[in-house]
Amino acid sequence: MKNEFKGLIVQGDKKFSLKNHKTDYTGGYNKEKAKDALVNSKIELDHLQEKLYASGKHSVLIIFQAMDAAGKDSAIEHVMSGLNPQGCQVYTFKVPTSEEYEHDFLWRHYKALPERGRIGIHNRSHYENVLVCKVHPEYVLSENIPGFNDVKKINKSFWQQRYKSIKNFEEHLTANGTVILKFFLNVSRDEQKQRFLERIDDPTKNWKFSSGDIKERALWDKYMEAYQDAINETSTVESPWHIIPADKKWFARLAISEIIEDKLKSLDLKFPVLGEAEVAKLDETKNILLSE
């Protein structure tokens, strides 16, 4: 991995602080240089995806978490646009349905996991249950968990158990061949303000804006604390968090693409090699076709 992206990884070996990560970091790139580099990275991702699909040994789960207007949707659009749709699936998780509330909080996410050979992208994820639910603990009451019928009972030990459940879930997936890449798009409060104003001023972007976004923005500090806690509690060597400076979308897209590319390369993916019997069958079939 290039040096300019190494500092974006949190592996759980030391406490992480959001204050130490600059949201406008660009790693020495300018906009044009980053765009050119992204084109090359996307070409490489296309080749790697084909090997991933052909080998059928690993699946890849890419998780995007961020505050509103941080650029999750555009990152998915620009980074993943060169991939074969047949080997890629995207899920956007919203408020749980009544059926989903009748199961444990990981149930709907487990259902959406990618098969071996495929790349799954979760736009928001199981981490919403320790992010928005931590800022709004009253949401947890809708889960009807025995013993938790009052917000006052949702204490520190409750969240520690939930972090533990997430770590166990991810450890199980990793042990069974799923590569997990977790991205937090770290946008500044000032940049979010500018993007909200753009959505309001541009009629073609009005649909992206919700009045509820402003209510959540007022809870910015609580969200930052929730993100920092979640990152510290769930970052591991096997499943680290990647903190992406998101004030410059062009750099965020490149960083995400390079990190995914680097991880896929580390898997040493290869096309399957046929045995002697299968090769003989191919030769026989070729002769049949040529004799027609």
Automatic annotation (TrEMBL):
- Keyword DNA repair found: no
Q: Which GO MF term does the entry hold, naming one? A: polyphosphate kinase activity
Among the GO biological process terms of this entry, one is: polyphosphate metabolic process
Domain Polyphosphate kinase-2-related residue range list: 30-267
InterPro entries for this protein: P-loop_NTPase, Polyphosphate_phosphotransfera, PPK2-rel_1, PPK2-related
Q: Entry's Gene3D superfamilies?
A: P-loop containing nucleotide triphosphate hydrolases (3.40.50.300)
Keywords assigned: Kinase, Transferase
- Family to which this protein belongs: Belongs to the polyphosphate kinase 2 (PPK2) family. Class I subfamily.
Supply the name of the protein. Answer: Polyphosphate--nucleotide phosphotransferase
Q: What is the lineage of its organism?
A: Bacteria, Pseudomonadati, Bacteroidota, Sphingobacteriia, Sphingobacteriales
